[in-house]
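step=encode ok
step=design start
structure_in=
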């Protein structure tokens, strides 16, 4: 599986302005509403917040992987975001998150959802990749970096 096959340049938010977890989720989902106006963004945000209530998706090392499943979704949607300032995301290491990969999956697609989450997790354990990600200067640079994964 090539993660780049599931990414879309229009769903990269290179400079998140949000300062709180709910604001980050809303800002990331806002890009989905532009790309897919038919999607219920309020429901997506609610799904992500409900998932966060089960346990944080801030895995540490500046990384958060919020995710959720939606009944009416037809395909996996991944939104990538970066915060220059960092956001308190209740991460396991108590450090701010700067790298966000939001994975939205159809409710009936369990295996692929888990494979994508595992692939993202493996990728973000790589110090070199994380450093290249946070030092990218634009959406285009992030897109080019993400095309290598």
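sequence_out=
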């Amino acid at each position: 599986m090539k993660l780049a096959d599931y990414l879309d340049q229009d769903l990269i938010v290179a400079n998140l302005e949000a300062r709180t977890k709910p604001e980050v989720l809303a800002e990331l989902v806002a890009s989905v509403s532009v790309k897919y106006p038919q999607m219920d963004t309020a429901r997506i945000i609610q799904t992500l917040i409900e998932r966060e209530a089960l346990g944080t998706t801030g895995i540490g090392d500046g990384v958060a992987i919020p995710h959720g499943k939606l009944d009416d979704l037809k395909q996996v949607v991944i939104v990538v975001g970066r915060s220059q300032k960092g956001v308190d995301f209740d991460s396991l290491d108590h450090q701010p998150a700067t790298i966000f990969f939001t994975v939205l999956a159809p409710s009936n697609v369990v295996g692929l959802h888990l494979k994508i989450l595992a692939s993202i997790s493996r990728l973000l354990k790589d110090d070199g990749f994380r450093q290249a990600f946070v030092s990218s200067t634009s959406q285009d640079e992030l897109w080019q970096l993400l095309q290598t994964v």
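step=design ok
step=annotate ok -> The chain has one domain: 3-146.
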